[in-house]
Amino acid sequence: LHSEAMEGSETRPSEAVSPKTHTENLLATLPKREGWSTPLLLYNNCWIRPHCLKDAMAVQDKLKPRPDDIILAAHPKCGTTWLKALLFTVLNRPRYTFTDHPLLTVRPHQLVPFIALRPGDLDRAEMLPSPRLLSTHLPLPLLPPAVSTLGCRIVCVCREPKDAFLSRWHFEKKLHQGISLSMDEAFAMFSEGCSPYGPFWDRYLEYWKLKSGQTTRGDVSKV
Questions:
Q1: CB 44 within 8 Å of CB 37
Q2: Catalytic residues
Q3: 119 class by beta-carbon count within 10 Å (0-12 exposed, 13-18 middle, 19+ buried)
Q4: Digit-coded pLDDT (tens) for 29-63
Q5: For the whole model, what pTM was predicted?
Q6: How open is the CA angle 50-34-182, to the nearest 5 degrees?
Q7: Spatial distance between the Cα atoms of 36 and 207, rounded to a whole number of angstroms
Q8: Cα separation values, 150 from 73, 114, 139, 142, 204, Å
Q9: Residue 126 to residues 45, 123, 147, 153: CA-CA distances in angstroms?
Q10: d(Cα 105, Cα 28) in Å, to the nearest integer?
């Protein structure tokens, strides 16, 4: 009886939790806000859609930054496509003429891939030759720390917040026609900081403050 009691009192080793289960458990504990086309979760001072947060966690775990990476960091609806075209053109100026330029037939999003927006993005980024030209909507705290410590060059585009909000509003209404959030309600949430990848100004301040630690790259310049 004693041995049976001892056997029953032994602490069993905890069962291994899969990364997927761990992520789902974490998402269930985060603050949540309704209103936009899909709910937003607050993680590390960033309001983000659940599926985008899963992608961000994959980026933190799997992306291997390189010192010569060039990362285009832009808030959604703030000129990402435009800046992709400009950067690709500048970096590849000697390679193409006006008649055979890839931008005549290929969208900028295909030429400058997102770090993680669609399945396979991380694998495609890993296969690119250096120097890589990459793009992301993710805030700095959700990127691997090596992006900062290795001195990756970051190009950040900022848009007038009222214009950014209007573009976001029309984009949401077009993409999700069943959205019931009025413009006034959406603007109030945006102003409070609760919008996809918000708070808006916090995102830019994070990248702006990074410049003080990258003295070898020079100061951030206003274009």
A1: no
A2: 137
A3: exposed
A4: 999 999 888 899 999 999 999 989 988 888 988 89
A5: 0.81
A6: 125
A7: 26
A8: 16, 20, 17, 16, 20
A9: 28, 5, 15, 17
A10: 43
